[in-house]
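Morning!

As promised:
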Amino acid sequence: MGMEQVVLLPAIPAAIFVVLALFSPLLPRRGDWLAVVGMAVVVVLALAVAFHFQDFFGHGEFDPSGENARAFEWLNLSNGLFQIDLSTYVDAITVVMLLVVSIVALMVMIYSVGYMRGEARYGWYFGALSFFTASMLLLVTAGNLMVLYFAWEAVGLASFLLIGFYWERRSAAEAAKKAFITTRIGDVGLLIGIILLWREAGTFDIQQIIEFAEGGGFDQRYLTVAMLFLFMGAVGKSAQFPLHVWLPDAMEGPTPVSALIHAATMVVAGVYLVARMLPVFDVVLVARDVVLYTGLITAFMAATMGLVASDIKRVLAYSTVSQLGFMFVALGLGSPTAAMFHLFTHAFFKALLFLGSGSVIHATHQQEIEQLGGLWRKQPLTTWTFVIGSLALAGVIPLAGFWSKDEILHAANHNLPVFVTLAVTAGLTAIYTTRLVLLTFFGEPRNHHAYEHAHESPPIMTLPLLVLAALAAVAGFVIYEGVGQALGFAGGIGQLIFAHEPEVFHFDRDLATFALAVSLGGIGIGLVYWWGTAERATRARGWAPELHALLVNRYYFDDLYQSLINYVVLGAGSVIAVFDKRVVNETGVDGGAQTVGWFGLRLKFLQTGRIPNYALAMAGGIVTLSLVAFYTS
Amino acid sequence: MIPLENFLVLSAILFALGFYGVLARRSAILILIAVELMLAAVSINMVAFAAYLDPTRFTGIIFAIFVITVAAAEVGLALGIVLRLFRERASANVDEANSLKW
């Protein structure tokens, strides 16, 4: 498969979306098989792209800056002054994203066949998933900021549709709205950033912008502002502080959707964007520092909130926010390899955890971990795959999360405050993960009704769990050269990302030991507090009730935003409403109508109905016109 | 040969008479007749100009024939309207036909 056909990747699910949206009631099984088969084809094609990529790389013919296949010119105003090409761009970052998106999407779709069975709008669900996948694949293959922006908005729309899938439930509709509006705030920044870059560079092509920036074409201060605006988009989409509030609420959507969109793919679009533009961020280090500290604050805050969340999916949502923070820290430290590697491993184990929680919810119809417990006897497969995912998340050797977290810590080696914060956050990660596993699957069942009815999920749901568990266990090894090469990643993932300056992986024993100690320490603390009936954890709450309240109330961010909306937005709105009522409506619209009416009432008497009057007026008009014509010619 | 001005003066007088008739008369029939006078005045003008200024071609004369044709059609139509009016109101006085107003 040639690079020119990369555009097929988004085109296949897009076509399936159209078919499902229009004809799903007519198809057998409402067309779910179509989505699954289409996705399998995309996985094969993505692997083909990866291997093709290696071919070029292996023979030394590969252009390290990637292959740019220009599809066609879409818009060209003023002779190239404003030109948008529908172009694709494939480099190592794209390959990683293609593999992650297609594999996780396939697993989620297979799982959904079991999870969503019997739902109303079953066909539409698969259509929307296909739409999302198409948009996401377009986003990662876009060679042009405008195409990227289009796909960016399309994944936002898909996210909105799928969070609000159960729109009959008010909370789901509200969550969808919240997610859309919050990310939209970031998207406005992204658009402004793109326009600012275009204004100076005169092109939307990402590689040309990077060359322009590296050649010093931008004014430093101007570029800083532009990149910060661009980063705003990433902050919104990847749920970073202070726009992180939407992701926990997005858990209102069906659980497989949370796994695909709100854990593995869409939320990492921000990481992808920053990684893609990182050469430009390298030019303005102030902007890169903003990325670093935003990620750091988010990682820590979200981990602390994850400690007290009581909903199984919300714990995972905070964990996702926190791990995304890790990726931004890596980017801020200038290590796209670590960020993309963590993105790669995180996608697998977090999708696994979400699908596992979906299996629990499917069996018990309970999401509150206070109502669960003891499920390991009823759901052995779910439990053990979940444990594997959790250990990967906590960073236990040799599971995937260990390797990637280690890389990020390695990148932070020379920055002590950042390193310490990351280590503490990694410890917190291990603690909340242990808590989640213990409360959900071990101990004594707290809600006997839910426990009695629990059962293992059907094979169609456990199969994706097993595949993802295997990936979560071994995905980290691609960092080793030999493994990476065998899988199509020439020279391990380190060389994959930046072919022109390969970062060869060294196993740093001291750092690895330290990281493992932090993880095991966190797990130990978790075991001490939550093992059995978890009475120690309950007692611990009494030590600092204010702190507990602060965390449970999510640092009062939602309340802050709600009061901002109540007082500032609605307040300004009521002032504007008065202006609209008095000035626009009464003076402008009604005023115009009243003026016309007033004149009409008086002028209507000109219409006498007497023929001689009309004749006279006509004659007068003709005479006047004749005189005018005579004297002016 | 009779100078062109004579024709023009005659035409102007006829036109003014017709104009006055249209404005001053009350009877619909008389207004129609006045309109015919105006048309006749215009026709005279055209024929005169044609004969004096461009005798080799017949543009003006043909136009005069057109005017006569149109006038005939117009009278046919207008008389029909006047007839209906008279049947409705037992009068052809245009002052009374004033209901089409505010």
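The domain at 4-100 of chain B is CATH 1.10.287.3510 (Helix Hairpins).

Hope this helps with the figure draft.
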